[in-house]
Amino acid sequence: MTFRAIVIIGDNKRKVGVGIGRADDVNLAIDKAVLNGKKNLITVPLTFQDSVPHVVKSSYGACSLMLRPASQGTGVIAGGSVKTVLELAGIKNILAKQFGSSNILNNAKATILALTSLNEKVELGKYQSIHKQYFYDKIMRKFKNVHAFN
Question: Looking at residue 96, what is its pLDDT?
């Protein structure tokens, strides 16, 4: 007979992780889950209103999840393990809806996947905007040079 512990770790300042541990003793399972959760920490992008930048959908197993940004003062509108993950990530205003299965572990992992994809899209947007800025700077430089000689 073994015990399984699911632990959600966060610092309320944009870092959150989910850990799983199995052992013959409950305390050992919790310790293993904490170590696993610390290894799997992710950073969450937040807006000035402590919300997510845009709508994101994800699924893990039979669980599907949708996260939507919300205005100031809305709070965390979510249920189950999704609410715990979002609160420990430091998100204060968000709307979340879970579809399909209500499995605690799968919903927590679907939330982590959604926040990870959100992070990837934000990083990609920063990268694209830098390249677009370089492109526009080159065009404007050529444009300025052409008009300088006329």
Answer: 94
